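Quarterly update, task 2.4: adenosine monophosphate-bound model.
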Amino acid sequence: MAGEPQDDCLFCKVVAGTIPATIVRETETTVAFRDINPQAPTHVLVIPKAHYPNAAELSVAAPELAADVLRETRAVAEEDKLDSYRVVFNTGSGAGQTVFHAHAHVLGGRGMQWPPG
Ligand code: AMP
Ligand code: ZN
C-alpha cells in the first residue's frame, strides 16, 4: 500500500533506526540526516517517514507530506545559516536517483555551477 514501509528500502531502515544516520532534524512526518557521501559542506537529505518511491509519486499521493519535506529543506538551510543553497530531487535512474524512497538533497556552503551535470 502507498506509504507503507518497504523491507528492502535503505531509507525506511533509517526511519526505523535499524541503519545508523546522523540525524539533524526530525518532525512527526519527516527525517533529515547528513548524506554519507557529501557533495558540499552542507549535504542533508530530507525524507518523508512514509515510503514513496520518488518525489513525483509523493507529490500526487501525499501533497501535504510533500509540503512537509519542502518546509524542512528550508529549516535545514536556516540551521546551517545558508542564504544560498540548492534543493535537488533526483527522479528516475537517468537523473541519478539511486535510492527509491523520495528524498530532497539540500546542498550548500560552496559556490555552484549551472547547468548541473
Ligand atoms: P540519489 O542518488 O538522489 O538517490 O541519492 C541517494 C543519496 O543517498 C546519495 O547521495 C548517497 O550518498 C546517500 N546515501 C546512501 N546511503 C546512505 C546512508 N546510509 N546514509 C546517508 N546517506 C546515504
Ligand atoms: Zn522507503
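Highlight for this quarter: The beta strands are 23-26, 30-34, 42-48, 85-88, 104-108.
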